[in-house]
Design goal:
Blueprint lengths: L1 H8 L1 H15 L7 H25 L1 H17 L3 E2 L2 E5 L4 E5 L2 E3 L8 E5 L2 E5 L9 E8 L2 E6 L7 H13 L11 E8 L2 E6 L8 E5 L2 E6 L8 H22 L12
Parallel strand pairs: 7-9, 8-10
Antiparallel strand pairs: 1-4, 2-3, 3-6, 4-5, 5-8, 6-7, 9-12, 10-11
């Protein structure tokens, strides 16, 4: 899917190069430069329309591939999506089973698992890219805060990895952009697993998250960037919640 998507999305640029090359070869055919330019422009427009139709008709699979691929690269850990369904006629959709794997050095438990996600698409906008989502509602998140044998938390580890990846030029940008007018994460819980909690994990309620106009200032952001912002907010809430319990984490002083 990702190879096909890249081929379709970047087809207009490739077509333009082919048309320009053909025009150069036919420089002696008697066609004026303006005619050659118009032919190339028509070809690019037709392929752009074709790419837009493909994206719209295969939106579920395209979104799933983009979120998994670019989300995993930005978060530097595996991100999986179980299912995406969109009702383009009604401008609605849902996402199920988004899971963010623990970073290396911790248990096989997912560090974050999002609840069911519903979203509303702005159907009044005629252009395909960026996709404007009027509202995204995430019905809770289940998160796990762990301390490994070295006294390091999975939350702090993932925070550092995300921060480092943000400034690396190796991040691959997605051709598809998004704008989210309002993003809400409803009641979420974190499970605290440290030597201090004893046999079972301690459950902590996390505060509600509200984000507005994501991607508006930059005319759209990638799915990976959305996941970076959202995950960073959840990790921040987890750190604050653990600090609020008054428990001193291994390897840290109370002032950290």
């Amino acid at each position: 899917m990702s190879v096909k998507l890249a081929a379709i999305v970047h087809a207009p640029a490739a077509a333009a190069l082919r048309v320009n090359a053909a025009a150069a070869k036919q420089s002696g055919s008697g066609k004026s430069p303006m005619k050659k330019f118009l032919l190339g422009l028509i070809a690019v427009i037709l392929l752009t329309v074709t790419a837009g139709i493909y994206l719209w008709n295969n939106l579920d699979g395209v979104l799933q591939t983009i979120i998994q691929s670019h989300g995993s690269k930005v978060l530097t850990t595996e991100l999986t999506v179980a299912e995406i369904r969109t009702d383009r006629q009604r401008g609605r959709g849902s996402i199920a089973g988004i899971k963010v794997a623990n970073p290396p050095g911790f248990s096989d438990t997912n560090i974050i698992q999002l609840g069911k996600i519903t979203f509303r698409i702005n159907t009044e906008k005629t252009a395909i890219n960026p996709i404007i989502l009027n509202e995204v509602v995430i019905r809770g998140a289940d998160a796990v805060y762990e301390i490994n044998d070295a006294g390091i938390s999975n939350v702090d580890t993932l925070k550092r990895q995300i921060h480092a990846q943000r400034y690396r030029k190796s991040e691959h940008s997605s051709p598809l952009k998004f704008i989210i007018r309002k993003l809400i994460v409803e009641t979420s819980m974190a499970r605290l697993r440290t030597p201090a909690t004893g046999k079972g994990p301690k459950r902590i309620r996390l505060p509600k998250i509200m984000m507005h106009n994501v991607g508006v200032s930059s005319e759209g952001v990638t799915a990976g960037e959305i996941m970076r912002q959202l995950t960073s907010r959840i990790l921040g809430n987890m750190s604050n919640a653990v600090a609020g319990t008054g428990q001193q984490m291994p390897g840290r002083s109370p002032s950290d």
